[in-house]
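Extended Data, panel c. Modelled sequence:
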Amino acid sequence: MTSNVSLANEVVSAVARATDVDPLAVEPELFEAVDGDALDRLFQDTTGQATFEYDGYEVTVTSEGDVTLAPLAE
């Protein structure tokens, strides 16, 4: 992953698009689900993927910088 890509920002942007809101209006804030700084550092020296729940979605991020969302079952 390139160092200028913030996975934390990409996650918030993806959720904002999926919920049709401004990225600054996404609630709850990302830090309530995952440490954004740790997420950004996660793939500095390794490859792979990580999955966590956030704002009604199962979020998967990859070392390539991809972010995918899957709605959680209610």
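The chain has one domain: 7-71. This feature is highlighted in the accompanying rendering.
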